[in-house]
Amino acid sequence: MKQVNKPISSQTIGTFALQALLYEAALYPKPGLVDPKSCGAHSDMNYFTFIDSSTTLAPFLTEYVQLGIKHKGTPFELFANVRSLGQKAEKAMLAKTNGVNTHKGANFSFALVLSATGKIIQEQRITLPFSKHETTVIFDYVKQMTKGLLAKDFADLVQKKHLSYGEKLYVKYGLTGIRGEAESGYPTLQEIALPFLRKHRKAQQHRTFLLLLLQLMANIEDSNLINRGGINAWKNVKKQSDELLQLFSIDSSEKELEEALIRFDQELIQVHLSPGGSADLLALSYFFAQLEGLF
């Protein structure tokens, strides 16, 4: 039975999402990724770029929730409305960062998740913190919103003259990227990230999320890594991440874990590899951890 009964507003949920983006950016050390002490494998962005980008997205995050709360039509219609707003958010983000893509993938996923959250709040009038079941309902609604997305977005790619790197990876390897993750209801979050966070909800938060990042890097299909280094580079990063998970656990020395991740960061910087897909899923993990009151 829930012990807390807080009214839920779109601003509250939007703030959770903004905090999730900021928490992800602030987590240190993150191999190949931007954090407060390292630019990772990036020469065109730093920690402050992510702060600027996150705060620019902030009003849109709340608007995504509002769209869901007010929506009366089908899941497909909500997706169309959210995608239109998401494109405006992306333009605002790129204008703020001088064209640097900091949160394109995260913006796409948060648009879906936040609007679905708003819709569930409207229909079920639930309160904070969410239960595991209520979180699952959000993912189920995202699946309804994005049903057929891959087929629609990737239709007739052979005829297109200019492909995005996501489209190129789909054509060359059949990799579905974040679209596939969304259309499947974010199985990585449901089967890996959230069970891990629920299990270790009483553990030290910083160490827990560093280990979660490694869990994500060891398991997901990261199109950012594949685009930068190819299939073999991606597989090697997965292997290295898994090896670190064999060495470190929730009870390990935080200092030793950080030292190992700093060395991993230097290795990825040398070969220009950044696990951006894992970073986006880590931010979503922070969001759902807040929604469920895990930390």
Structure write-up:
There is one protein chain. By secondary structure, this protein is mostly helical. The protein has a domain at about 10-200 and about 280-290. It contains 14 helices and no strands. It has helices at about 10-25, 45-70, 75-95, 105-125, 130-145, 150-155, 165-175, 175-185, 185-200, 205-220, 225-230, 230-245, 255-270, 275-290. The radius of gyration is 18 Å and the shape is globular. The two termini are about 20 Å apart. The mean pLDDT is about 95.
Report how far apart the termini are: 18 Å
Low-confidence stretches: none
- Largest sheet: number of strands, sense, barrel closure: none
Mean pLDDT: 94
Structural class by helix and strand composition: mainly alpha
Beta percentage is under 5%
Indicate the percent of residues in helices. Answer: 55-70%
How many alpha or pi helices?
14
- What is the approximate shape? globular
